[in-house]
Amino acid sequence: MDTITAIILGIVEGITEFIPVSSTGHMILTSKAMGFDDQTDIMKTFEIVIQLGAILAIAIVYWRRILGLLGLKRKDKTTLVGSPSKGLDLIHVILGIAPALIVAFFARDFIKSLFSANTVVWALVAGGIFMIFAEWFNKTKSKVTAHDLDDLTYKQAFLIGLYQIISVLWPGFSRSGSTISGGMLSGVSYKASADFSFLIAIPIMCAASGYELLDSYRYFNSDTIGYFAIGFFVAFVVAYLVVLAFMKLIQRIRLTHFAIYRFVLAAVFWIFILN
Predict the structure, then answer these.
(1) Which of 83, 84, 182, 275 sits at 20 to 30 Å (Cα–Cα) from 62?
(2) pLDDT per residue over 36-69, tens digit each?
(3) Which own/partner pairs from 220-226 qualify as long-range (CB within 8 Å, at least 24 positions apart)?
């Protein structure tokens, strides 16, 4: 690894982690294009580190909501925006993350065995089709009952959590793609689904990354720490900017646009990686 590699991978992670295009697919494709093995222990550790950078970005974007969920108040005793009193509470978050965490814990080795370019290609296509269907269903068949986060019901939060399992078991399907689409299939608006997807990414990715770091901490040394720090910082900055831009442009960037991009990426995989 060198500085340029750390910067490029940090940028790729920051751009793709929270939008429904599959960060896993992009990391594999970028690694192959740059001519190195992304399955080495050091590279796996690096990917965990830059994921943590992206998580920090989301935590900063949603800091008011997070403090509100914890029931914290301002000095003037008024509750923060997004406090449990306004609708969304910790139970929603728990219901949204519990199914995926349970499956990931018990199927960890099986999930790791699925990481391959072939798996990612089919996941990109299947995920794109699923997203197009979810958007169509949300517009024509579903009665939207949750227009923002505070309208979300416990049932809808749990259904989103169940849909998230697809991305856990199928690398390349996209965690945000499955949760945003799942929300739209459950009567949640596009924006509220995206908000909830980003919010529950914080605990679920912290848990997953933290667990993986227990096996990888020994790869932090004087030879790697500098590159890890660069990747972390770049992923943090890029993810922060991407999420802010995505939420501002959400009414103009539909899931179908991301689905078409996924199909193109799958074709690139097929031509340059699998053949």
Answers:
(1) 182
(2) 766 677 888 888 899 999 999 999 999 988 888 8
(3) 220/45, 224/1, 224/42, 224/45, 224/46
How far is residue 144's CA from residue 24's CA, in Å, rounded to a whole number? 31
pLDDT of the residue at 37 = 67
Average pLDDT over residues 239-255: 91
CA distances from 240 to 37, 58, 105, 220, 261 (A): 28, 7, 29, 25, 21
Confidence (pLDDT) at 81: 42
Q: Where are the alpha helices (DSSP H) in the chain?
A: 3-16, 23-34, 41-61, 63-69, 90-106, 108-113, 117-140, 154-169, 175-185, 190-216, 225-248, 255-272
Considering Cα of 67, then 72, then 77, then 83, what sign does the dihedral take? positive
Contacts with 35 (C-beta within 8 Å, 6 or more apart), sequence order: none
Q: What are phi and psi of 79, to 5 degrees?
A: -75, 150
Contact indicator for 157, 95 with CB cutoff of 8 Å: yes
Residue 229's alpha-carbon distances to 12, 131, 181, 246, in angstroms, are: 15, 34, 33, 26
Q: Contact, 121 vs 266, CB < 8 A?
A: yes
Taking 60 as the threshold, does the pLDDT of residue 185 lie above it? yes
pLDDT tens digits for range 187-233: 999 999 999 999 999 999 998 888 888 877 777 888 888 999 999 99
